[in-house]
Amino acid sequence: MRRLRPEGVGQTLRAAFLPQLQPSPDRQLTDQGVFVMADPHTNDPVRLPARRLPALLDIALPAVAVGSGAMLFMAVPNIIGGDDLWSWTKAITLALSATVVGYAVNKLAIERGAPQAVRGYRMAGILSVGSILAVGGGLFAATYSGLVFKHVTELQLQEHGAALSVHVSTQGAAAAKTGQVTPAIGSITTDLRQKADCEIESSCVSGRGNGGRGPVARALDERAGRAEAIAGQVANGERMRGLRLDELNGLIGDYQGVLADDEVPISERRVELAGIDARVRQVAGELAEAVPVAMLSAFAGELKGGVEIPGRPAAQASLNAILARHGQGLDDVIGSVERLEMAPPAFPKRTGVSDTLGYFGHFLPVAAIAAVVELIFPLALWLYTFMALHWEGHVKEAGQRRGRPGTGDDDPSSSSGNGALPPQEQLTDTNVAAFLPPRRRRNGRGARRGRFDSLN
Predict the structure, then answer these.
(1) Half-sphere exposure of 190 toward its Cβ, with a 13 Å CA cutoff?
(2) Is 444 within a domain?
(3) What is the rounded end-to-end Cα distance, in angstroms, of the chain?
(4) How many Cβ atoms are within 10 Å of 120's Cβ, its own excluded?
(5) Looking at the chain, which terminus has fewer C-beta neighbours within 10 angstroms, N or C?
(6) d(Cα 37, Cα 39) in Å, to the nearest integer?
(7) How confident is the model over 386-413, as pLDDT tens digits?
(8) What is the crossing angle of helices 293-305 and 181-202, to 10°?
(9) At 35, which helix (H) or strand (E)?
(10) This model's pTM is above 0.70
């Protein structure tokens, strides 16, 4: 077999394909050495028509529906609670249903309702706008509340913790004022005991005899003993008050610590916080009753009531004066102590959808985004479609009025001044160019692909 030399191969290929590569009426050779098909009538290169982009509604409506469904899918688990398979199944079902319903309603309202409303069918406009608002409002309420649900629960627990701290501080301040009765009852106890001892030794109160345990001494000894017993209870109450205050402060610290632990789910933290709240209520009640103020008030009344000593009016008057003075002083001290009958704040109930609306301003950016996706954007699409169709009808009606007989528009001589094309037999390059859009500059990739070619 005979081998061909390299130059021989090139000559053979040129001889075989050169006739087909010669320019012809339907082929042109460009500056880059590329042959393109040419139009035999105009001798211009034949180009494929520019690819049309999909309409805005074909992209916007599905995108809005998918975005709305995705946000609802993230929101629903927070509302219904639970992380099990059944909860996620419910969330997926609700999200898919909302996506289909939202897309169908918005598409029908824009593509069917808006044209009917332009034609004068008012009920179509009312129903289409109302359906967009109804479906969008429902989706907005569910989406917004679900997205901020856990945060609202945490805010409610924070507010309750702050109110509980204020209540504990107020109760502690009120309990501290009860400490004023301790020196008062102590001084009464000391004075009565001294008077009783003095009466027993020298009858210094009754002024009769040289001492002994007479009726005055017995009355003073009885009142001194009762004062000593009450003073002991007051001292125990003071110690209990200090312990209860320390415990309350520790419980408030535990409450804030549990609430700040973000690693634990809010549902579990809520259960633990409810237990701490119950303990705070119990300790606060014990703090209010630590000092026996009621017993002190009764003892003050007993002292002011005095005693009766038959046949000894002078001794009775002297003893009752001493007791009345102590009773009035103790009563004044008790009256200066503020008794607060304030119940602790109630623990917040389980958060609901309506509770999230109360924090609308706190989560305004989230609410704004949800409102734009669910309500504002579909309604804006409907309004823009309505305005575009209305304007298109107005332009078409104006064109029909210009083309009516008797207006001079059908006169060929006036065709160049009224915006209408001249008859076909009078078409020239000059008068047709006036009705064509301006030719754009051919440069760049778009020009080579023929995307910016104007009519020729």
Answers:
(1) 6
(2) no
(3) 58
(4) 8
(5) N
(6) 7
(7) 998 889 888 888 877 776 544 444 444 4
(8) 40
(9) strand 35-37
(10) no
